[in-house]
Amino acid sequence: xxxxxxxxxxxxxxxxxxxxSLIIQPKMLSxxxxxxxxxxxxxxxxxxxxPWPWS
Length: 55
Prior knowledge:
By secondary structure, this protein is mainly alpha-helical.
């Protein structure tokens, strides 16, 4: 069964993950976000109780 032969695909997978982990990921993590989150208190709305007809 040729699907179980890891000879060509294992090295390709390892090299691609190493490339991603060592080269691409640090470059992507060094970018600063363009829209940083704002420290804002969440607004709470006042809720009214539901007028149940049987109570």
